[in-house]
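Q: Could you fold this chain for me?
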Amino acid sequence: MGDNSKNNFGVDQPDEVGYASITNTSGKKFNRRKFVQSSIAGLAALSGLASSQISFATEAASNSSTSATSRKRPKAIAFDVIETLFDLRALRPAFVEAGLPAYSLELFFSQMLRDGFALESSHELLPFGELAVNTLKVTSANVGAPLTTEQAKDILANVAALPPHPDVVAAVKYFKASGIRLITLTNSSSGNTDKLLTKAGIRDQIDYLWPASDSGHWKPAPEPYHYAAKKLGLNIDEVALIAAHPWDIHGAVSAGMTGVYIKRQESLYQPSFKQPHFQGEDMLALAKVLMSL
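A: Sure. Below is the predicted structure, expressed as structure tokens.
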């Protein structure tokens, strides 16, 4: 998984306590809820964005105790890679050209994650590239257009050409200019992450590229998040994870990180999971909120 010759596939209601009325030095009380919400709205306005694009998690599930107002300015940002930074939908033409239905891209990705989680649960990690190729072969067979191993590898080679989402470059540069360390933390290998970041013109902005498997586990097990914080020499609550996957945010928040959910393709964050501390539709807007803490 750490083989640099391989690509990424290997080839919002916080606790009420946090909103309690506070008495300031003049003896006047103000409502922290209103203060926080108006601050976010003001920042959004300065950024030229609707306030709905940047928010604290407002629909906490019953098993979640996350509170955005308790979070401090992070000292490091950990990025998930595929779908969070780079748009997986660009891989669809390669699937269609190979005779696969357009919907099979999402089917493949979800099945690969499912099977990866099963391997993690049984303590049997494979090289992520091997899992990806085998999953694509299974998916293609299930949709009636079976692929050979070589055909699956050829399709997945196109991962190296995924484009960044439109908000990524500006957000990464904003974070870096703010003086904090940036890393990638992904279940896939670091080799093609390096290529993708270089192609996007932001490789020099990222300090470390760490595959989760360096911890002996895949996300969302707690070990990768703790491993990253330890490698950075930080307490885990001093690191924020930005990800487009609710399961990844759940894992990070459960481990103690600040969870920042960037909405890409999911319409609704999974209510059964630990909720993100922050969420929004624009990464640059989220960057400005985090750096203002």
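A (continued): The CA atoms of residues 267 and 281 lie 11 Å apart.
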